[in-house]
Design goal:
The structure holds 2 protein chains of 2 kinds.
Chain A: E1 8-12, H1 16-28, E2 32-36, H2 39-48, E3 53-56, H3 65-75, E4 80-85, H4 91-99, E5 102-106, H5 110-122, E6 133-136, E7 139-142, E8 147-150, E9 153-156, H6 159-170, E10 175-177, H7 178-185, H8 194-208, E11 218-221, E12 225-228
Parallel strand pairs in A: 1-2, 1-3, 3-4, 4-5
Antiparallel strand pairs in A: 6-7, 7-8, 8-9, 10-12, 11-12
Helix pairs in contact in A: 3-4, 6-7, 7-8
Chain B: H1 14-17, H2 23-51, H3 55-99, H4 114-144, H5 152-167, E1 171-175, E2 193-201, E3 204-213, H6 221-289, H7 291-294, H8 297-324, E4 332-334, H9 336-346, E5 353-358, E6 364-367, H10 369-387, E7 392-400, E8 405-411, H11 419-422, H12 444-454, E9 458-461, E10 471-479
Parallel strand pairs in B: 5-7
Antiparallel strand pairs in B: 1-3, 2-3, 4-6, 6-10, 7-8, 8-10, 9-10
Classes of the chains: A alpha/beta, B alpha+beta.
């Protein structure tokens, strides 16, 4: 599904020297890069054409990066990676869940940043549900805010769990290969192994299944991968209409 | 004679109480009746007997007369006794009530003999006790209402108006000055009576409470005691208000300092991390530029030092976040051996021997990756720093199967941790005093232990062991190998 045109990235940061070097590094890796030093410039660039991804510094003195991110999200569902120095308060990092696909703290290592960018771009084709996803009487996913409602109780999902469920939900009812889940859940530089997927799925079942030993939503397809399935009102009846693969 | 009524009505109607005749008159009359009446009856009978000679008739008459006289005498005596004891009983009951702390209605006895004066004296005492009780209750109520947060000025104003209301003073002032500067007024009969009491807090005299009482009011020792009590309670309240004010000022000062510290650290965060980001980015670009550049030791050192500085800045920021209670780890599954090896490689200590024993293959730790990196870096950096470059750093990964916990022991071959250092090793800003090399923030072990505890783990110093240096063991929740596909 990936066309041959270069992926476009809009880089928003108030640090001019960083913009120069990061833009060069990204261009060397085949990306098409536009830069903006503040929110106004960023919005002007967006008017001229939408990129595939925005790299945004949240800690800019002149404008509120979070407000900018919200404005961008309200206009277009563009993936945003926040590139920011670690703040003394964690509250901001929490707000990121609302607007950002990922977070890379400054100073970053370029290979890691590139790996994160590639992971987000790989997910572009996925239809990520932005509303609540009702999978059955006992399970509703709210992946845009990293939460699930299980038997009426809300449980928090980790960023990785949320990414894995997004990938599975994008192919609801279909098998998703372990390798695919590995590449969506973890960046290349994290050196994740297939066991990461296995164990994460086991932990996810503990969180979202009413009976983790007899899962009805998160099913293992031995030797291949996993499927996420919706069930009808009667929890014993698996929705077979979409279970093709 | 009416019995004293058990009613607590403070003002019973006088008609119900008094007999209308003085006690002394009653007593005299009673005694006369009791002694004279039988004699008169008996005398009368003797006279009658003398006039008639019929003995047979006379004997029963005489006997009857004696019995009658005795009966009269007894009745009269009983009446006399009753007239004496009834008012005495009333006074006794009333005094007992007052002694028991109850209110007592006034006793009304006519005449001006001893018993009447006794009743009057009781009435006065009873009414004063009642008044002081009310004053005490008002005083306690006023004191209970003093809030140290109101501040000394408001409290002083309250104390003045309360003193006037409680003691019925015409005026009252609280002089918070040296007691000597408030002259003692003389009591001139007919003029308002001056009253005063020292305002004390503990052994210190804060000032004096002085006012005037209407000239008609009495002022007993007990009244002075009550005023002294009030004044000393006011003193304590004033001192509390003063201390409260001090604490309040110190609190706001601390809040200011805390805000300044936060501001400073935000500055550190931005002003150090931003240039570091540029340095790191340019070095990355240079290192990636050519084979020759990638081998340039000078560039490698710049990259290493930038990384080192980055980790130190992050450590500092983690401390502030730990203290602010805003640090919430996001736990993910992590292969420990890979993570340890990467942390070691990041330290660029290829000249030091490194051994990694993974006795828990397939197991994954459950931790926040970034924070685990901070812990591993701090522990490995310590092992390098204190183990000596000639030594060897050994890492063993084990698993506690039934508990699903992963243990990682990081050991060096340095001199180890002295007994003196062991106790305070995990506190902030402490380094091993004996082998302090001056570098480092002194935060590594403190931050590591705090981070691990936040992630449901722990960090312990292993007991000293012959031939081995310092050995730290971190533990974290673990997941057994997955085998689902």
């Amino acid at each position: 599904m990936n066309e041959h045109r270069a992926r476009r990235i809009l880089l928003v940061d108030d640090d001019a020297s960083l913009l120069v070097v990061l833009a060069e590094q990204l261009r060397d890796d085949g990306f098409e890069v536009a830069t903006a030093r503040d929110g106004q410039e960023a919005l002007r660039r967006l008017d001229a054409g939408w990129p595939d991804l925005i790299l945004l510094d949240l800690m800019m003195p002149k404008i509120d990066g979070l407000a900018l991110a919200r404005q961008i999200k309200s206009e277009a569902d563009l993936p945003i990676i926040v590139l920011s120095a670690i703040d003394t308060a964690d509250s901001k990092a929490r707000l990121l869940d609302e607007v950002a696909e990922d977070y890379v703290s400054k100073p970053y290592h370029y290979p890691e940043l590139r790996a994160r960018i590639q992971r987000v771009l790989a997910r572009l084709g996925d239809r990520i549900p932005h509303q609540s996803l009702v999978l059955g009487p006992n399970l509703t996913l709210d992946l845009h805010r990293r939460a699930a409602t299980v038997s009426g109780k809300e449980v928090q999902l980790t960023p990785t769990e949320s990414r894995l469920l997004m990938t599975l939900a994008a192919s609801l009812g279909d098998i998703v290969a372990t390798e695919t889940l590995l590449s969506r859940g973890w960046a290349e530089t994290e050196e994740a192994e297939p066991s990461y997927v296995w164990v994460s799925m086991r932990r996810l079942r503990q969180k979202i299944e009413v009976d983790p030993d007899r899962p009805i939503h998160l099913l293992t397809v031995r030797g291949v991968g996993y499927r996420l399935v919706a069930v009808r009102e009667d929890p014993s009846c698996v929705d077979a209409s979409r279970a093709g693969g | 004679m009416a019995e004293p009524r058990p009613s607590t009505d403070p003002a019973p109607s006088p008609t119900a109480a008094g007999s209308g005749v003085s006690f002394r008159v009653l007593l005299t009359a009673g005694l006369i009746v009791a002694s004279v009446l039988p004699l008169a009856v008996f005398g009368g009978l003797i006279l009658l007997l003398g006039l008639d000679n019929n003995i047979r008739v006379m004997v029963p008459l005489l006997i009857g007369g004696v019995v009658l006289a005795a009966l009269f005498g007894l009745l009269a005596a009983a009446a006399a006794v009753a007239s004496v004891t009834a008012p005495l009983r009333r006074i006794t009951t009333a005094v007992e009530r007052v002694a028991a702390g109850e209110t007592s209605p006034p006793i009304h006895l006519t005449g001006d003999d001893e018993l009447a004066r006794l009743a009057e004296s009781h009435n006065r005492i009873a009414s004063e006790v009642g008044r002081r009780n009310r004053e005490l209750a008002a005083l306690l109520g006023a004191i209970a209402g003093y809030n140290p947060a109101d501040g000394p000025q408001t409290l002083a104003a309250h104390a003045e108006s309360d003193a006037c209301a409680i003691y019925g003073l015409i005026d009252c002032r609280l002089h918070l000055v040296d007691t000597i500067t408030v002259p003692i007024e003389e009591n001139v009969p007919g003029d308002p009576r001056p009253v005063r009491a020292s305002v004390r807090a503990g052994s210190e005299t804060l000032g004096v409470l002085a006012g005037h009482l209407p000239a008609t009011r009495s002022w007993e020792r007990a009244d002075q005691d009550l005023l002294d009590l009030f004044a000393s309670e006011v003193g304590v309240a004033l001192r509390n208000a003063e201390l409260f004010g001090q604490i309040d000022r110190q609190n706001s000062r601390l809040l200011e300092l805390d805000a300044a510290k936060d501001e400073f650290l935000r500055g550190v965060s931005h002003n150090l991390q931003t240039p570091l980001t540029s340095i790191r980015a340019y070095v990355d670009q240079l290192l990636a530029g050519s084979e020759e550049a990638a081998r340039d030791r000078r560039l490698q050192i710049v990259a290493e030092q930038a990384d080192r500085l980055t980790r130190l800045v992050r450590q500092l920021l983690i401390v502030t976040r730990l203290e602010a209670g805003v640090l919430r780890p996001e736990v993910e599954v992590i292969a420990m051996a890979t993570r340890v090896r990467r942390a070691w490689e990041a330290l660029n200590a290829s000249d030091v021997a490194f051994e990694l024993h993974d006795e828990a293959p397939g197991w994954l730790a459950v931790a926040d990756p970034d924070q685990l990196d901070q812990v591993l870096w701090a522990l490995l950096d310590n092992a390098l720093k204190y183990g000596g470059r000639e030594g060897k750093v050994e890492v063993a990964i084990r698993v506690d199967d039934p508990a699903d916990r992963i243990h990682v022991t990081i050991a060096d071959h340095g001199p180890g941790v002295s007994e003196a250092d062991r106790a305070r090793l995990f506190t902030r800003f402490t380094r091993g005093a004996t082998q302090s090399s001056g570098d480092g923030t002194g935060l590594g072990l403190y931050v590591s232990r705090q981070l691990l505890q936040k992630m449901g783990g722990e960090l312990l110093l292993e007991p000293a062991c012959e031939g081995l240096g310092a050995a730290f063991t971190l533990s974290l929740p673990g997941e057994p190998p997955g085998d689902e596909t």
